Amino acid sequence: MLQQHQIELIHREIDGATMPDESAAVRKLVAEDPEARALDADLRRVGRLFQQVEAREPPIHLKQSILDAVAQSARASPKEVPAWSSPFAFVRWSLSTLKTAFESLTEHTEMAIMTKKTMIIGSTVIATVVVVAAIATGFPPIGNGAGTIGGDGPISGVQQASRYQGRAITPAEVTLQNPEISVLLQNPEVLKLVTSEAFRTVMANEAFRSAMASEAFRTAMASEAFRTAMASEAFRTVMANEAYRTVMASEAYRTAMANEAFRTAQAQGAFRTAQSTEALRTAQASEAFRTLQASEAFRTLQASEAFRSLQASEAFRTAMASESFRTVMASEAFRTAMASEAFRTAMASESFRTAMASEAFRTVMASEAFRTLQNSEAFRSLSRSAQASEAFMTEANRTAQRTAE
Amino acid sequence: MEETTSTTDEQDRAFVRGYLAGQRDAASGLIDRYQKPLFNVALRMLHDAQDAEDVTQTVFLNALLQLRSYDPKYRFFSWVYRMTVNESLNVLKRRKPTVALEDRPGLLAAGSTPDEVAEVQDRVGKALLELRPDDRAVVVLKHFMSFTYEEIADVLEVPVKTVKSRLFTARDRLREALREPRG
């Protein structure tokens, strides 16, 4: 019976990690002991098998894919991120996925809507649309004053992430600089929305707050391209789309968003590549899609009941096929924004997924008031300015609190 | 000709400095140097070319984006291999254990490899998948990358004696798994 140290010695001899005297001892042991001889022979046989496995050349496109991804990330990641980015900037940012998705749909409208490629696109659309819906319905505003998350009002008890605590916006500034806010809050539908229980629940949602506080979200929100896209007429049209709202409000959508496989697929390198606009437009895109489709994460996602259910819904199909969706994707701003690595990182985050899957978001999305808000000219005007967006949310919160009191 | 470790380290540092200084070809140099070995580490860890590509791309992307925070007192070489192993382990964790190997777009399907070599590759790949992932990482770095015990310890951030223990245990299992079929 071989001793443990003898076994280790034979292993080390195989690895060429013995001293000359140890090597001699191994040779002697192997010559005299059949068990040692068998072990030595087996290990050498295993070693030879490994040697027959030649190194594979990486895919020819891999280097360029890496360089493209790095370049995109570099462009989308400004060195200095503002201390605060507005909820509406985030909305703009999140729509970038819609851009990519529907660009592709535009190119492939003749294709059956439930092809694999469209399924991938659709999943991206879903995720993005949820983000848009969520952010547009509420956002923890800056500071700890009255009417803010973490303040002393009825939705107190949620701490504002310290890195988000930027300059406090005073009520005077809100009123004087942004008359659109008053206009919006005087609208009965909008008022009804911001004073609703669902609105307050969204604002107090821990997962939502956590998602918004992430570094990836902050970085994503810093893009000018998102602001431009968000302010467009096409965006407003999408927001008013009935099918879009139906999808947002559906149980299938909510379940799909809570699906672990979805998040995993989002986090995969291939998924990120497939989402990039350039990839969709070139032959490289096809490779990216093939890679994604072959990935374990995507296969798992496709197999999930939640995902199938969502894709099978009429509302989802209609939303994806609508002219308004394709229109909103037509701008360069969306394409640029989509390149953001931060966006993709944020989409893959646990807190994002949890927030999107919450009942509160679904409720708000289903409300008529939400559509009214999105459709209003005042809202569009506000969304062109990050500070005005913040101010609106602050004032909306304050209004909600006053109503609750 | 084999590069010495110190030469490799110095060239890596030069690429890193160049990249941080804005030299566009520095990233290209690092990718040229490491894409094949990293891809192969991931491939042997995962037995799936598509996943290996994903891992390689993710590792490079993360590495290049994090270079500003990279501490040059550590070896770039160890850093990227460590990220590759860790990312591969992450992929393995996300995999469903019930997925059959035959369902995977594996090694055999992708190349024009002669049948016998392909058969060996497949056997070895499947035998590796039967190892615990931590053990598999040691075997891959030892047998496919020809790393020393010390280099493996550096990459995996474990003591050398742990490397030996994992390697020897894994090889004992491989002896059985790769035994020639009788016949």
Protein described:
The complex is a heterodimer of chains A (405) and B (183). Chain A is elongated. Helices cover 74% and strands 0% of the residues of chain A. In chain A, helix 5 packs antiparallel against helix 6. Chain A has helices at 4-14, 20-32, 34-52, 62-76, 87-107, 116-137, 171-177, 179-186, 188-194, 197-204, 206-213, 215-221, 224-230, 233-239, 242-249, 251-257, 260-267, 269-275, 277-281, 283-294, 296-303, 305-312, 314-321, 323-328, 332-338, 341-347, 350-356, 359-365, 368-375, 377-383, 386-404. The chains are: A mainly alpha (405), B mainly alpha (183). Chains A and B meet through helix 1, helix 3, helix 4, helix 18 and helix 21 of A and helix 2, helix 3, helix 5, helix 6 and helix 8 of B.
> What structural class should be given to the helix and strand makeup of chain A?
mainly alpha
Show unreliable segments of chain B.
Answer: 98-113
Count of alpha/pi helices of chain B: 8
Largest sheet of chain A: none
Oligomer state equals heterodimer
Amino-to-carboxy terminus distance of chain B: 42 Å
Which blocks of ≥5 consecutive residues of chain A have pLDDT under 50?
Answer: 76-176, 219-223, 225-229, 268-286, 327-340
The percent of residues in helical segments of chain A reads over 70%
Kindly report how far apart the N and C termini of chain A lie: 83 Å
Main beta-sheet strand count, sense and barrel state of chain B: none
List keywords for this structure.
heterodimer, A: 405 residues, mainly alpha, 31 helices, B: 183 residues
